[in-house]
Each structure stands twice: as structure tokens, then as C-alpha cells.
Amino acid sequence: MSADDADRAAVAERADSSAEADATGAAESVIDLAGVTFGYTATPVVEDVSLTVESGEYVAVVGPNGSGKSTLMRLMLGLLGPDAGTARLFGEDAARFDDGERIGYVAQQASAAQDMPITVREVVKMGRFPYLGLDRLADGALADGLADDPVRTARWAANVVSGRLTAADWAVVDDALATVGMSAFADRRVGRLSGGQRQRVFIARALAGEADLLVLDEPTVGVDAESVDAFYDLLDALNDAGITVVLIEHDLGAVVEHADRVVCLNREVYFDGPTEEFVESDALARAFGTEARFLTGGAE
To answer: Where is the ABC transporter domain (predicted)?
Structure first.
């Protein structure tokens, strides 16, 4: 099977799983903010923000520098607690949410990532770490396996307890690498990759963790234009396959081309709705002021 065929098969498999979930119940609210206000000082950075992100949506958050976009993202993920209002993640208080494998986070390019002395496959396998340990033995597989094949099951249990990945875990890692088109780079040091390739690796890590929500904070900063196009094509495919995408982005052209919904923020929400309506609205001018340069990729 070619790399392209593997990519398509991996994405198609995730799409089938998503369709199954849709058939069994209504869409789940992934993020739910109600009247959220937060400030690092007495002055609010985010003020009275209410929004809901449903399962399977592709939402872009835009706004000028200092508008509170990254702070809003931290509130969504429970990394900050609101001064007023409520923030819920998958139906739970965001600050107390502890099912971290459901969330994949891709930050802006960082120099630390370039200096990591590990390979691509080693980064991606980190996505499997939440599934290791004693919790994996609590699902009945241990008792059933000991009855059917005690020797092999005992070896499997020893690997789980010691934190070693099983063959099934490595298969998930390899599938994630194939999905983002990085299989050929599995043994390469992360520091020897381009910026766009590194971002693909961090998405693969999220996929290996079987994340339902992918949050990206200006992930294409410092990435060349050709790689940016391929990166957004990948996000489109993952969203089509059922992953919820929340993107903080300064490139308004990319937002309009790829996102289904736009939240325009400058401390408060100036717009929240379909991308087509955002293009026709005056929200951009109100939020960005005279510095707005729409669809140029240089809005900030």
C-alpha cells in the first residue's frame, strides 16, 4: 500500500467511526462558555464571552494582537479559571476535566521543539502514554486473556505495567504517522524537520492519543507558504473525518478558505457565526479598527 493509500485509509477509518457515533446520539457539546470574564489584573482580557462548540465543528478564532485569543483558548481548555461565568469541556467543569487524551494541542513553533534530541516516532508515541499503566488492566482483558493464553497475557500485562507500548499501540502510532504523511520521517530527529513537518508530527501525537478535539494556536507561524497549504489540507481532512477543530489564526485568508465558523474577538465577541456571514459583516473593521487588512494574511 502506498503512503497516499495509507493516508486515505486512516482518514476513512476515522470517518466511519465518527459516522457510527453520529448514528447513536446527538452531537456533543465539546466546549461551552457562558458569560466568561477573565483578567490578569483588574482590567478584563476576556469579557462576558459566551459560545458553544459542538462535536465535529471547525471553528476559527480571530482578532488583533492582544485581543485575548490565547487567553480564551486557555479558558476553553481549563488551563485558566474564569473570574466570572462558567467554562465546560465535554460537559464537565473545564478546570477539573482530567480526560486529557481527548484533547490534542498544537502550539506555535517553539525553539525548544527544534532542540529535542528524539525522533519523530518517539514524539508520536507520547500520545499513547495516557493509555499505559494499571488502568488498562481494569477493562476485563486481563482476566479473559489469562484464561485463553496465560503466557502471552502475562507478558502483555508486564509491558503495560512497565509503561511499554504494545503491538496495538505501535500500530496506532504508525497509523497516525501515515495520516499526517510523515511515515517516511519516522526515524528522523525532530530538530532536522522543517517547521511544517514538525507541526504535522505534533498533530500525529494528538491522533495517537485518539483525540476528539484539536486545538491549534497560530500553528503556521514561521512555516513556508507551500507547507501552510498542505497543513490546512490536512486539517480539512481530519475535520471531515470527525475531529473537532478550534483554530486560533492570524491569517484571515486561510480562515475564510477553511473554517466553517468564525469567532471574532477583541476582549468581547464581535462576531460568532458562519464564515460566509463573517465575510459580509463589519465585524472585522470593528474588531481590528483601521489596521484591518482583510484576506492579506497580515491582519495583525
So the answer is: 31-292
Q: What one-character DSSP code corresponds to residue 26? A: P
Residue 249 has, within 13 A of its CA and on its CB side, a CA count of 27
CATH number at 55 reads: 3.40.50.300
Domain of residue 183: give its range: 3-291
Count of structural domains, the chain:
1
Give pLDDT tens digits along the chain (300 positions).
443 444 444 444 544 444 444 443 445 699 999 999 999 999 999 999 999 999 999 999 999 888 999 999 999 999 999 999 999 999 999 999 988 788 988 887 654 456 667 899 988 988 888 777 645 444 555 555 556 666 555 554 555 554 578 888 889 999 999 999 999 999 999 888 888 888 899 899 888 888 899 999 988 877 777 788 888 999 999 999 999 999 998 888 889 999 999 999 999 999 999 999 998 899 888 888 755 554 434 433
- Whether 132 is in a domain gets the answer yes
Cell of 115: 532542540
As a whole number of angstroms, the distance between CA 277 and CA 290 comes to 21
Residue identified by cell 494499571 is 134
Helices (H), 209-282: 225-240, 252-258, 275-280
**Percentages (nearest 5) of helix, strand, coil residues in the chain:** 50, 20, 30
Query: Considering the domain boundaries, does residue 300 fall inside one?
Result: no
